[in-house]
Amino acid sequence: MTKLINEKKYRFEIPEGKKKERIDIFLANSIENATRSKVQKLIEAKLVTVNGAVVKSNYNIKPSDIIEAVQPISPRPEDAEPEDIPLNIIYEDEYLLVVNKPAGMVAHPAYANYTGTLVNALLHHSQKLSSLNEPGRPGIVHRLDKDTSGLLVVAKEDWAHAKLAEQFAQHTVEREYYAVCWGIFNETEGKIESLITRSKKDRKKFTVSSVEGKAAITFYEVIKEFEFTSYVKLKLKTGRTHQIRVHLSSIGKPVFGDASYGGRQIKSGSNIPGIKSNVKDLLDIMTRQALHAKTLGFIHPKTRKMMRFHSDLPDDIQLLIAKLSEPFSDK
User: Fold this and answer.
1) 23-29 own/partner pairs: CB under 8 Å, 24+ apart
2) pTM score, two decimals?
């Protein structure tokens, strides 16, 4: 079990005569201030064991089972504080708002990122945000990785949040991402389909799997090819954590600049004179993954009308594409 710096440990021995019950329900009722969703996250992070073995949330406890759980303890209060941080708001009404999140901004407070987040900015901007989430994540319906830029919808009302979340769960939300990735595709369009699960080597990362994980589907379309990279449009059928980054990396086409999934290593063309020095210059431009959530479409929870929003590529990706469009010179 992973060792955490700030943690609280629990140990339960199931007595004889205990009725059949899912472990996530049992722990939610047994740990003070716990919710079922929080318990499920602990189980997913492999912080819960039964008789020394990792289990899933649907495991049914039995008499004599020894359950051990580790709960991370936040060193700071969970409630986020309002901060006067500029927001690029694309649309806003009394029920929701759509924000164009810049790269480098974390969606909500978490370990090592308690200030400067989207939530901190939202709390300063609006007096009304949904409260369906756990404390510290008001209004957040879905997330983008810290270094992915682009569109997010935020809920102001709980019922609106629930309606939007239902659309994400049913995979009816339209999401288009644009990215620059390594390599040239054999087909100009296609589908990447796999299971995605948390990496056993690094808990902060994810990987494709043929035996475990959640189903994930990504559609891609090549917009333009360069000498050793491609500019692509990607549509999500599902919305797993790091899905696009993991899927592109799994087929040898990692997002350019992505430090976690191989995008800061030369994947092709390394034997061409001048390529290495040119790539270093490009990586200096693209200090994060070249991935942008460009289009977001959903049914408005109140009007029931289709809403579709688009955002321009940020300056760093535009500059990267411009440089890639130029012929490479030997150095």
Assistant:
1) 23/48, 23/50, 23/55, 23/57, 23/58, 23/59, 23/60, 23/61, 23/67, 24/57, 24/58, 26/61, 26/67, 27/67, 27/69
2) 0.74
